[in-house]
């Protein structure tokens, strides 16, 4: 049975560094799931720096949906997956390949999209729990800031917050990172 470790905190709080440290402590084969998409030079540079920070000997997978299917071939390995990050997964599942006017989207459309994202995350959690893989999931804590002034931002915050709650409930360990300092929550 795989173990899930949840790492959350604000932007630039040290979440990824802490999560990488947890991965190294497990002393298993390392698999990195990058959920971000490099749309511009800034993001490409962030990805490059993350790769340098992680170092060698990682299997890298770039995906934001059907991750549980992609990881199937590692199901019985002695591995640990670092998923960085859940909020990018939510973002990409909200906007890529969708024609939604978020300012006037009907609530049933928003609910359907949220259900699809929730289903993706539940399948991933179930997959890990029924495999030999461990997983460290990184996510931004989105509930401590201002309420976004535009609909897409509010929907993103609300959906991300509920997905964080789902992972927080299902995980074996949870940490909040603030200014590079960790607080064990669970």
3D architecture notes:
The longest helix has 23 residues, at 107-129. The protein is built from six helices and seven strands, in the order βαβαβαβααβαββ. It has a single domain (4-184), classed as Rossmann fold, CATH 3.40.50.300. The chain has 186 residues and is of the alpha/beta class. Strands 3-2-4-5-1-6-7 form a seven-stranded mixed sheet, with helices on both faces.
List the helices and strands and how they pair.
Blueprint: E1 4-9, H1 15-26, E2 29-34, H2 41-54, E3 58-62, H3 67-70, E4 79-84, H4 86-95, H5 107-129, E5 134-140, H6 151-170, E6 173-178, E7 181-184
Helix pairs in contact: 4-5, 4-6, 5-6
Structure in a nutshell:
This protein has 186 residues and is of the alpha/beta class. The protein has 6 helices and 7 strands.
Which fold does the CATH topology refer to? Rossmann fold
Rounded radius of gyration (Å)? 16 Å
Number of strands: 7
Q: Alpha-carbon distance between the termini?
A: 18 Å
CATH superfamily assignment? P-loop containing nucleotide triphosphate hydrolases
- How do the strands of the widest beta sheet line up side by side? 3-2-4-5-1-6-7
**Morphology:** globular
Q: How many domain regions?
A: 1
Unreliable spans are none
SSE order, as H and E? Answer: EHEHEHEHHEHEE
- Report the average pLDDT across residues: 93
């Amino acid at each position: 049975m795989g173990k899930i470790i949840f790492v959350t905190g604000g932007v630039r709080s040290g979440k990824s560094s802490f999560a990488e440290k947890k991965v190294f402590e497990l002393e298993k084969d390392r698999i990195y799931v990058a959920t971000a998409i490099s749309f511009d030079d800034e993001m490409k540079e962030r990805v490059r720096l993350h790769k340098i920070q992680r170092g060698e000997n990682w299997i890298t997978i770039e995906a934001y949906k059907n991750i549980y299917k992609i990881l199937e071939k590692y199901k019985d390995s002695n591995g640990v997956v670092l998923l960085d990050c859940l909020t990018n997964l939510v973002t990409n599942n909200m906007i890529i390949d969708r024609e939604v006017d978020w300012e006037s989207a009907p609530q049933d459309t928003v609910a359907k999209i949220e259900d699809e994202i929730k289903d993706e995350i539940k399948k991933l959690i179930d997959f890990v729990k029924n495999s030999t893989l461990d997983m460290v999931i990184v996510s931004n804590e989105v509930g401590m800031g201002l309420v976004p002034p535009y609909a897409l931002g509010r929907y993103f915050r609300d959906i991300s917050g509920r997905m964080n709650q789902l992972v927080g409930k299902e995980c074996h360990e949870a940490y909040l990172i603030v200014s590079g300092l960790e607080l064990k929550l669970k």
